[in-house]
Amino acid sequence: MQPSAPLPPPPPLGPTRTSGMAIAGFVCSFFCGLLGLIFSILGRNECKRSNGTVGGEGLALAGIIISSISLALSVIGIAASIAIPAFMEYQIHSKRTEAELQLRRIERNAKAYVTANGAFPRMSAPLTPSTTCCEGPGHKCNDMSAWTVPAWQELDFQIDEPHRFRYEYQSTGTEMTVRAVGDLDCDGNTVTHELRGRIQDGNAVFERLGPTGSD
User: Fold this and answer.
1) Can you tell me the distance from the alpha carbon of 117 to that of 113, in angstroms, rounded to the nearest whole number?
2) Which of 11, 26, 175, 192 is the most exposed place for a label (fewest CB within 10 A)?
3) What is the pTM assigned to this prediction?
4) Helix count (H) and strand count (E) of the chain?
5) Which residues lie closer than 8 Å to 29 by C-beta, 6 or more apart?
6) pLDDT digits (tens, 9 = 90+) for 68-101
7) How far apart are CA 141 and CA 98, in angstroms?
């Protein structure tokens, strides 16, 4: 009598329960990405180690994916909350730099004029150009003919490229004031930079004030 063939192994038992960690991870993934990710990873590992007796691996995987997306969006949001204000501040600073550079240029020219003539040009120039820069293309002044005012010609000053500030000059000969006025955001609020000069012991002495106002 031949020995009977060995019986096939019994079929594996189905999951007897669903991983609590997988459920918790999936639920938390919608509210707290970090906890959702941790619980989902623990739940998935529990399912793998159970040899099929613990279910919920799909829930755990979904929790991992959702939590990862949530964390990535949080990181992007934090980075944006830091970067956007910094970028806006950089833009404002770069716009104001124009006035600082041009006033420094006027200061050099005025100092050279005093050295040659013993006084500042005794004249004045209204805000130049005469219309606000917000009315120009790209919200910038672009009228090169505006600098034919005698005071600017005496100071050998003009701006040959689009700019955001208008400039004003007043002088009695012994004292001078130059103002740079700009509406940088074209919202009706202006910022003003000021350069003051005076003759002291035959030399031109300057000080810069501002910016004042809000923009």
Assistant:
1) 6
2) 11
3) 0.60
4) 4, 7
5) 36, 37, 40, 62, 63, 64, 66, 67, 70
6) 998 888 888 888 888 777 766 666 666 668 999 9
7) 12
- Per-residue tokens: 24: 């918790």
Cβ neighbors of 150 (< 8 A, separation 6 or more) are 121, 123, 125
pLDDT digits (tens, 9 = 90+) for 149-190: 999 999 999 999 999 999 999 999 999 999 999 998 888 899
Distances, alpha carbon 80 to alpha carbons 3, 70, 91, 127, in Å:
76, 15, 16, 39
Fill in the amino acid letter for 146.
A
For the record, the structure tokens of 202 come out as: 């035959």
- Strand-pair category, 54-55 with 124-128: unpaired
HSE at residue 32, side-chain half, CA atoms within 13 A, is 8
Query: Letter for the amino acid at 74?
Result: S
